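Notes from hallway chat w/ T.B., transcribed later so I don't forget. T.B. wanted the structure written out for a chain they're using in a teaching module, and asked if we could keep both sequence and C-alpha coordinates in one place. Agreed to drop them here.
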Amino acid sequence: MDTQPDAPSAALPLVAPARRRRLLTLLLALTAVVAVVDQVTKYLAEAGLTPGELVPVLGTVLGLQLVYNPGAAFSFATGMTWVFTLVSVAVVVVIARTSRRLGSTGWAVALGLLLGGSLGNLVDRLFREPAFARGHVVDFISYNGWFVGNVADIAIVAAAVLIAVLALLGREVDGSRADDAGGAGAAARTSRRSDTGGGRNAPGTSGTDHV
Protein backbone atom coordinates (compact mmCIF):
# COMPACT_ATOMS: atom_id res chain seq x y z
CA MET A 1 0.00 0.00 0.00
CA ASP A 2 1.36 3.43 -0.99
CA THR A 3 1.64 5.82 1.98
CA GLN A 4 3.08 8.71 -0.05
CA PRO A 5 -0.02 10.98 0.26
CA ASP A 6 0.39 10.91 4.05
CA ALA A 7 3.99 12.18 3.98
CA PRO A 8 3.23 15.92 3.88
CA SER A 9 1.06 15.72 6.98
CA ALA A 10 3.86 13.91 8.81
CA ALA A 11 6.45 16.48 7.80
CA LEU A 12 4.27 19.53 8.45
CA PRO A 13 2.39 19.23 11.74
CA LEU A 14 -1.02 20.86 11.75
CA VAL A 15 -1.63 23.70 14.21
CA ALA A 16 -4.96 23.60 16.04
CA PRO A 17 -7.24 26.40 14.69
CA ALA A 18 -7.89 27.75 18.20
CA ARG A 19 -4.17 28.00 18.93
CA ARG A 20 -3.48 29.67 15.58
CA ARG A 21 -6.21 32.23 16.28
CA ARG A 22 -4.68 33.04 19.67
CA LEU A 23 -1.23 33.45 18.14
CA LEU A 24 -2.55 35.60 15.30
CA THR A 25 -4.32 37.77 17.86
CA LEU A 26 -1.02 38.15 19.74
CA LEU A 27 0.82 39.00 16.52
CA LEU A 28 -1.75 41.60 15.45
CA ALA A 29 -2.03 43.14 18.92
CA LEU A 30 1.75 43.51 19.18
CA THR A 31 1.85 44.94 15.65
CA ALA A 32 -0.77 47.54 16.55
CA VAL A 33 0.97 48.50 19.81
CA VAL A 34 4.36 48.96 18.15
CA ALA A 35 2.97 50.92 15.19
CA VAL A 36 0.83 53.21 17.38
CA VAL A 37 3.58 53.87 19.95
CA ASP A 38 6.00 54.57 17.10
CA GLN A 39 3.71 57.12 15.44
CA VAL A 40 2.72 58.78 18.72
CA THR A 41 6.34 59.21 19.83
CA LYS A 42 7.24 60.62 16.42
CA TYR A 43 4.42 63.15 16.74
CA LEU A 44 5.62 64.14 20.23
CA ALA A 45 9.21 64.42 18.99
CA GLU A 46 8.18 66.77 16.18
CA ALA A 47 6.07 68.81 18.57
CA GLY A 48 8.69 69.17 21.29
CA LEU A 49 12.12 68.99 19.68
CA THR A 50 14.06 71.36 17.46
CA PRO A 51 15.47 69.60 14.38
CA GLY A 52 19.15 68.79 14.80
CA GLU A 53 19.38 69.97 18.41
CA LEU A 54 20.56 67.30 20.89
CA VAL A 55 18.81 67.03 24.26
CA PRO A 56 20.91 64.80 26.58
CA VAL A 57 19.03 62.12 28.54
CA LEU A 58 21.89 59.96 29.86
CA GLY A 59 24.81 62.27 29.30
CA THR A 60 26.20 61.76 25.82
CA VAL A 61 25.27 58.06 25.75
CA LEU A 62 21.57 58.56 25.06
CA GLY A 63 19.72 61.67 23.96
CA LEU A 64 16.86 63.10 21.94
CA GLN A 65 17.62 64.62 18.55
CA LEU A 66 15.05 65.15 15.84
CA VAL A 67 16.24 64.23 12.34
CA TYR A 68 14.50 63.24 9.13
CA ASN A 69 16.04 60.10 7.70
CA PRO A 70 15.73 59.15 4.00
CA GLY A 71 17.59 55.86 4.57
CA ALA A 72 17.26 52.64 6.55
CA ALA A 73 17.06 51.93 10.26
CA PHE A 74 19.25 54.15 12.47
CA SER A 75 19.94 56.55 9.57
CA PHE A 76 21.95 54.05 7.48
CA ALA A 77 22.07 54.08 3.66
CA THR A 78 20.54 57.50 3.10
CA GLY A 79 19.53 58.43 -0.43
CA MET A 80 17.79 55.11 -1.19
CA THR A 81 14.32 55.92 0.17
CA TRP A 82 12.30 54.27 -2.60
CA VAL A 83 14.30 51.04 -2.23
CA PHE A 84 13.49 50.80 1.47
CA THR A 85 9.85 51.59 0.74
CA LEU A 86 9.71 48.55 -1.55
CA VAL A 87 11.56 46.43 1.02
CA SER A 88 9.09 47.44 3.73
CA VAL A 89 6.14 46.51 1.54
CA ALA A 90 7.76 43.15 0.74
CA VAL A 91 8.35 42.47 4.46
CA VAL A 92 4.68 43.14 5.24
CA VAL A 93 3.56 40.77 2.46
CA VAL A 94 5.96 38.00 3.55
CA ILE A 95 4.88 38.25 7.18
CA ALA A 96 1.20 38.11 6.17
CA ARG A 97 1.84 34.91 4.17
CA THR A 98 4.03 33.35 6.88
CA SER A 99 1.44 33.98 9.59
CA ARG A 100 -0.84 31.38 7.98
CA ARG A 101 1.51 28.67 9.32
CA LEU A 102 1.94 30.27 12.73
CA GLY A 103 2.16 27.81 15.62
CA SER A 104 4.88 29.26 17.87
CA THR A 105 4.53 31.96 20.52
CA GLY A 106 8.12 33.05 19.98
CA TRP A 107 7.53 33.51 16.26
CA ALA A 108 4.26 35.36 16.94
CA VAL A 109 6.17 37.86 19.10
CA ALA A 110 9.02 38.18 16.59
CA LEU A 111 6.72 38.68 13.60
CA GLY A 112 4.53 41.11 15.56
CA LEU A 113 7.57 43.25 16.43
CA LEU A 114 8.87 43.08 12.87
CA LEU A 115 5.51 43.88 11.29
CA GLY A 116 4.80 46.74 13.71
CA GLY A 117 8.22 48.28 13.14
CA SER A 118 7.99 47.87 9.38
CA LEU A 119 4.54 49.47 9.27
CA GLY A 120 5.64 52.32 11.53
CA ASN A 121 8.45 53.34 9.19
CA LEU A 122 6.44 52.49 6.06
CA VAL A 123 3.79 55.05 7.04
CA ASP A 124 6.52 57.70 7.14
CA ARG A 125 7.98 56.67 3.80
CA LEU A 126 4.59 56.64 2.11
CA PHE A 127 3.01 59.80 3.46
CA ARG A 128 5.68 62.20 4.68
CA GLU A 129 7.57 64.78 2.66
CA PRO A 130 9.13 65.18 0.19
CA ALA A 131 6.89 62.84 -1.87
CA PHE A 132 4.76 59.72 -1.80
CA ALA A 133 6.88 56.56 -1.30
CA ARG A 134 9.94 58.82 -0.86
CA GLY A 135 9.08 60.27 2.53
CA HIS A 136 11.72 60.74 5.22
CA VAL A 137 11.41 58.72 8.43
CA VAL A 138 11.26 60.62 11.73
CA ASP A 139 14.18 59.61 14.00
CA PHE A 140 14.70 61.11 17.45
CA ILE A 141 16.65 58.71 19.71
CA SER A 142 20.37 59.49 19.55
CA TYR A 143 22.81 56.75 20.56
CA ASN A 144 26.05 58.39 21.68
CA GLY A 145 26.10 60.45 18.48
CA TRP A 146 26.71 57.30 16.39
CA PHE A 147 23.24 57.06 14.89
CA VAL A 148 19.67 58.19 15.49
CA GLY A 149 16.65 55.88 15.51
CA ASN A 150 13.05 55.52 16.63
CA VAL A 151 10.70 53.05 18.31
CA ALA A 152 10.10 51.17 15.04
CA ASP A 153 13.84 50.60 14.64
CA ILE A 154 14.07 49.20 18.17
CA ALA A 155 11.23 46.77 17.43
CA ILE A 156 12.84 45.64 14.17
CA VAL A 157 16.20 44.99 15.84
CA ALA A 158 14.52 43.13 18.72
CA ALA A 159 12.64 41.00 16.17
CA ALA A 160 15.87 40.20 14.32
CA VAL A 161 17.55 39.08 17.55
CA LEU A 162 14.56 36.91 18.52
CA ILE A 163 14.40 35.34 15.04
CA ALA A 164 18.12 34.51 15.27
CA VAL A 165 17.58 32.85 18.66
CA LEU A 166 14.62 30.84 17.33
CA ALA A 167 16.69 29.75 14.33
CA LEU A 168 19.55 28.63 16.60
CA LEU A 169 17.08 26.65 18.68
CA GLY A 170 15.71 25.04 15.53
CA ARG A 171 12.21 26.33 16.20
CA GLU A 172 10.04 26.54 13.09
CA VAL A 173 7.19 29.01 12.47
CA ASP A 174 4.60 26.25 12.94
CA GLY A 175 6.03 25.39 16.37
CA SER A 176 7.86 22.25 15.33
CA ARG A 177 11.61 21.72 15.61
CA ALA A 178 13.80 21.49 12.53
CA ASP A 179 15.24 18.11 13.58
CA ASP A 180 11.72 16.76 14.18
CA ALA A 181 10.69 17.76 10.66
CA GLY A 182 13.80 16.11 9.26
CA GLY A 183 13.08 12.93 11.20
CA ALA A 184 9.49 12.87 9.98
CA GLY A 185 10.65 13.28 6.38
CA ALA A 186 13.19 10.47 6.77
CA ALA A 187 10.52 8.22 8.27
CA ALA A 188 8.20 8.95 5.35
CA ARG A 189 10.94 8.11 2.85
CA THR A 190 11.76 4.89 4.70
CA SER A 191 8.09 3.94 4.68
CA ARG A 192 7.85 4.50 0.93
CA ARG A 193 10.98 2.42 0.30
CA SER A 194 9.62 -0.39 2.48
CA ASP A 195 6.33 -0.42 0.61
CA THR A 196 8.12 -0.44 -2.74
CA GLY A 197 10.42 -3.19 -1.52
CA GLY A 198 7.40 -5.30 -0.64
CA GLY A 199 6.17 -4.78 -4.18
CA ARG A 200 9.43 -6.21 -5.59
CA ASN A 201 8.79 -9.54 -3.86
CA ALA A 202 5.24 -9.82 -5.15
CA PRO A 203 4.72 -11.87 -8.31
CA GLY A 204 4.45 -9.90 -11.50
CA THR A 205 5.76 -6.64 -10.09
CA SER A 206 8.73 -4.58 -11.19
CA GLY A 207 12.04 -4.90 -9.34
CA THR A 208 12.77 -1.14 -9.66
CA ASP A 209 12.87 0.84 -6.39
CA HIS A 210 11.08 4.16 -6.99
CA VAL A 211 12.18 6.68 -4.33
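Follow-up for T.B.: Strands lie at 54-58, 62-69, 137-143, 147-149. Might be a good example for the class.
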